[in-house]
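Tokens in:
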């Protein structure tokens, strides 16, 4: 059996929802992990089980400020608030994280000759006119809307990654993450899964934006983590971008009804105005991930929701 080489891996945004799961998975694979986070949306609670691990190091740092470190083999760049409530709280800071922050981390990768992965997003497709969304589709994004700080910020981050790859031969990877849920989601992040679960278990009305006919595709966190690691370990010639998401499409109304059933809640459904530029449909074409990464999601929505409901009930 081939021995796995221990790597020194930097994870920016490592104390966040996705980052903390990634740090744990990398530690379990035997790697040394440096977790960088400014704790704006991340939490020390998310990494509490790792703090005393000799292969884990936490550093409070904002990527918009330069960070220097030697002997880094790989970098996963997850630093950026990902929910509308958080990225719209300080839109200029969000743009800075996606530009200045990305330039700082790419510079660190260049100095160390590190392989580096950018956690991009399905939001680069905007309110798509093509369904499902595949990687060659350039998107339909409003550059001056309330969501633009995140949507355009992530698009710019992809541009920077590709330019560093072309100009400096940097070994890059780009993934586009579709809606992801699971334990360790923040209570106050305003995402639909956590919102609905918390409202249901607290016997509050379920608030639905628009008429609820808009669709999303939800992937469980463990599927995303395996996809990220597969992408990092893929052939150097494959840079992406590649969609990582679950192609099982569901309407927001049906999601609400499913959560009501799983929580045995009697909450009512309340409909509100749809936020501007909110996508009507969102579903990944994952043919490229299947072909290049040998990756498909394993977890069904009911399984993941039960795990997530259990997590929130235990908080």
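Residues out:
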């Amino acid at each position: 059996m081939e021995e796995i080489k221990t790597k020194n891996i930097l994870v920016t945004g490592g104390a966040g929802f996705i980052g903390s799961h990634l740090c744990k998975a990398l530690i379990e694979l035997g790697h040394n992990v440096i977790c960088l986070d400014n704790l704006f949306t991340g939490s020390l609670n998310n990494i509490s089980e790792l703090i005393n691990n000799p292969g884990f190091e936490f550093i409070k740092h904002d990527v918009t400020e330069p960070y220097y470190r030697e002997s880094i083999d790989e970098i996963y760049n997850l630093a950026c608030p990902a929910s509308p409530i958080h990225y719209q709280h300080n839109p200029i800071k969000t743009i800075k994280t996606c530009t200045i922050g990305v330039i700082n981390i790419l510079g660190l990768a260049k100095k160390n000759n590190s392989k580096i992965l950018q956690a991009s997003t399905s939001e680069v497709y905007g309110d798509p006119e093509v369904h499902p969304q595949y990687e060659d589709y350039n998107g339909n994004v409003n550059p001056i809307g309330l969501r633009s700080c995140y949507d355009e910020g992530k698009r710019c981050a992809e541009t920077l990654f590709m330019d560093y790859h072309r100009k400096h031969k940097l070994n890059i990877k780009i993934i586009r993450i579709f809606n992801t849920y699971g334990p360790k989601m923040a209570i106050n992040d305003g995402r639909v899964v956590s919102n609905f679960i918390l409202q249901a278990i607290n016997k509050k009305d379920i608030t639905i934006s628009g008429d609820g006919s808009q669709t999303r595709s939800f992937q469980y966190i463990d599927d995303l983590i395996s996809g990220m690691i597969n992408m990092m370990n893929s052939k150097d010639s494959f840079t992406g971008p590649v969609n990582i998401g679950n192609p099982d499409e569901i309407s927001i109304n049906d999601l609400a009804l499913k959560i009501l059933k799983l929580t045995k809640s009697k909450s009512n459904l309340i409909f509100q105005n749809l936020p501007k530029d909110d996508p009507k449909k969102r579903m990944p074409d994952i043919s490229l991930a299947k072909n290049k990464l040998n990756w498909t999601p394993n977890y069904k929505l009911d399984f993941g929701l039960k795990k997530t409901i259990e997590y929130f009930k235990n908080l």
